[in-house]
Write a structure and sequence with these properties.
Length: 695
């Protein structure tokens, strides 16, 4: 059991939404209690929601907190054991046993007796922290105790903080007499350098630099919005739309007064939301809050989802219907005759079961997309979807007179269903493309992907114009204005994609097709390279060892860390490490929307040496490069991507992509690393701040 929890802890420790979590900060102080006796005090500050385990835990429990004091010189004796606070003994939800742990703060004290003169005592604390649903891997932190010559407690901050502008500014501030701090020299800088950086980057940029953890919140809002729109789309399908008047009729007959009718309608709408949110909660609970996020770059994960979405799409196009067993519908329907809240809840459940042939593929697609993002995305997705479904049912049930404004059911409902089928088919190829990118198989390169999308959306345009009919369509005698408008939009989008076959960037859909360099003709058909003035060049230039040119902008890049660093030392430029991934959507957005801008492009080509490290590269390492993982005991790093992923996680305490690091030739960061930053000016200013620090 203990080993399983540790492995789960390692898993969750690696795959959190944005930054690697560090919920415990350690500080030390020393108190003199006699001429040759001192009390070493270790204080843990614990973030809200997390708890640190005691030094004494039951068998098969978590890793206990353990202190090891370095006494190689035999300069002191330990007096007794390390003493800890009272703490709390509760039923731990993770290990399902009674365990003593600490929250908020924990203080540990160890008395020592000096045998010879000593000024510093070093120690290591190993500990494990959990919240109510997950554990982080066992962590070791170095502690250092400076022995004072008096009884005054001398605190010392153990954590080494990244060098950011706020730290640089604080380092230049005079220390007051009552601030007994022993600061690391890494946090010091001269006033000139501080002022230069302060002038270059505004306060807003500083906040953006440190704002990568807020990105998941933006992602959840986008998931909610997309799911909300998908709910309205599902509402307009032939399985759901006709049920609105049936539901309204039921509530009108059952409600004796208007007030009761409104109350029942609200309960009905809330019941719909609860049912779908429970579905999202089940997906999150079964697979874990972040487990599916870790599979987003897994080849089989993407291939299975490709096949699943094709299955859904073919169903929507009319080949067959996805139906739940009739016995389920009959059992649920039999419960709707119950009175009160229970009967209304089963009515909502009956809606979900009966309409499954139309809502199932949409819900499945949403869960696939949301689950690949991890965290609470499946729950948020189902909340948005169910809210869009519930609102019209609840409102029309509360105000039945509004029914007169609804359009009549007809063939247009099946048209909506077919359009959704085409969209799902197009989305399916995104997952197949990600699998191909991770494998570097080059079977679905950019031109092939775009050709497939052009065929899909071109066929959809013909369908909307009435030139193609599918099994469940009604005869088309004329085209409505709405349908014609959608047909024109789809046609325009299809024509927009065609130049992409010859190298156009297609910024509107940059997140979907493979990147420009993953192409049969990276510089466009018939071109080997583009000059600054757009002229055709056919020149083969000698490149440094291990380097290549990123098409179509000719940015010199390395995929080998050591070769890139060696070249940077040769040319005297700082290093820009780009932790990226073949299946990383935001990486493609940065490369196609931010990097090509003139001032950013000039910096990338002339002022830094770019090293792109793909954390999902599934190519095997050379036999002599295979090493043991430091994050997963007993595991080996066998693939190139594993090597770079572990480097990012261990050295920079982050595992999200894109992740950009500016460092000098001693492999020290020049400025705080950043993640996804779509604002061109902010990204450019960040680059310039690091380059200025290097110079």
């Amino acid at each position: 059991m203990k080993k399983i929890i540790i492995i789960l802890g390692l898993f969750f420790g690696m795959f959190v939404n944005a930054q690697i979590l560090e919920p415990v900060k350690w500080s030390t102080s020393v108190k003199k209690i006699a001429d040759n006796e001192f009390k070493l005090i270790s204080t843990a500050t614990i973030e809200k929601g997390w708890h640190l385990y005691s030094q004494d835990v039951p068998e098969d429990g978590p890793i206990p907190t353990t202190f090891s004091y370095n006494n190689e010189k035999n300069s002191f004796n330990l007096v007794g054991k390390t003493v800890e606070e009272e703490g709390s003994i509760v039923e731990d939800p993770v290990f399902m046993m009674k365990i003593k742990f600490f929250d908020n703060t924990a203080v540990f004290e160890q008395t020592i007796q000096l045998l010879i003169e000593e000024t510093v005592v070093n120690a290591i604390v190993e500990f494990m922290v959990c919240d109510d649903s997950r554990c982080l891997p066992p962590t070791e932190v170095d502690l250092s105790f400076n022995l004072p010559k008096n009884e005054k407690v001398i605190p010392k901050n153990i954590e080494k903080q990244p060098i950011v502008l706020d730290t640089l500014i604080e380092a230049a501030t005079p220390v007051k007499d009552d601030d007994l701090l022993f600061q690391s020299s890494e946090n010091n800088t001269n006033e000139v350098e501080k002022n230069s950086l302060q002038a270059l980057i505004s306060k807003d940029i500083q906040q953006d630099t440190l704002a990568t953890p807020s990105e998941p919140k933006k992602g959840l809002w986008s998931i909610f919005f997309i799911a909300f729109l998908s709910g309205f789309a599902a509402l307009l399908t032939p399985c759901v739309f006709p049920m609105i008047p049936m539901t309204v009729s039921f509530f009108t007959k059952q409600s004796k007064t208007k007030a009761i009718g409104i109350k029942n309608a609200v309960i009905y709408g809330v019941s719909i939301i609860v049912i779908y949110v429970l579905l999202g909660t089940a997906v999150t609970g079964i697979f874990g809050a972040d487990a599916l996020n870790a599979l987003a770059t897994n080849v089989w994960f993407n291939i299975i989802f490709f096949l699943l979405l094709v299955f859904f799409a073919v169903s929507f196009l009319g080949a067959f219907e996805i139906m739940l067993p009739n016995s389920w519908a009959n059992k649920v329907d039999s419960q709707t005759n119950r009175g009160g809240i229970i009967g209304i809840f089963f009515m909502a459940l009956a809606l979900a079961v009966v309409s499954f042939s139309c809502t199932g593929p949409i819900v499945g697609t949403l869960l696939v997309e949301a689950a690949s993002k991890g965290g609470l995305a499946p729950i948020i997705g189902m909340l948005g979807f169910s809210l869009a479904i519930a609102l019209p049912f609840a409102l029309f049930a509360a105000f039945p007179g509004w029914l007169n404004s609804l359009p009549k059911s007809g063939g247009w409902l099946n048209t909506v269903k077919v359009v959704l089928g085409f969209l799902e088919l197009a989305l399916a190829f995104k997952f197949l493309s990600q699998a191909d990118l991770v494998l570097q198989a080059h079977l679905l390169e950019r031109e092939v992907f775009l050709a497939i999308w052009i065929a899909i959306f071109g066929t959809l345009a013909f369908y909307l114009f009435g030139k193609i009919q599918l099994p469940h369509d009604s005869p088309v005698t004329h085209i409505s204005v709405g349908r014609l408008s959608v047909a024109l939009i789809v046609s325009s989008f299809t024509v927009y994609m065609i130049p992409g076959l010859w190298g156009a960037p297609l910024n509107l859909i940059s997140a979907f097709p493979p990147p420009l360099e993953y192409s049969e003709s990276p510089y466009g058909v018939g071109f080997s390279k583009q000059g600054n003035l757009g002229t055709t060049l056919n020149i083969t230039e000698s490149l440094p060892d291990g380097a290549h040119l990123l098409a179509p902008h000719d940015i010199l890049a390395f995929n080998d860390y050591d070769k890139g660093l060696a070249y940077a030392k040769t040319v005297g430029k700082p290093v820009l490490i780009d932790f990226t991934g073949w299946a990383c959507v935001n990486c493609r957005k940065m490369e196609q929307n931010v990097w090509p801008k003139p001032k950013v492009l000039n910096t990338l080509k002339n002022d830094v040496v770019l090293i792109s490290l793909y954390v999902d590269d599934k190519r095997p390492l050379e036999p002599h490069e295979i090493t043991k993982s430091k994050l997963k005991p007993g595991k080996q790093l066998k693939y190139i991507g594993q090597k770079w992923s572990e480097l990012q996680t261990i050295k920079y305490k982050s595992n999200s992509q894109p992740f950009y690091v500016l460092m000098d030739h001693n492999e020290e960061t020049l400025i705080a690393p950043i993640g996804y930053m779509p604002n061109v000016d902010d990204y450019y200013n960040w680059l310039q701040a690091g380059i200025l620090k290097f110079n």
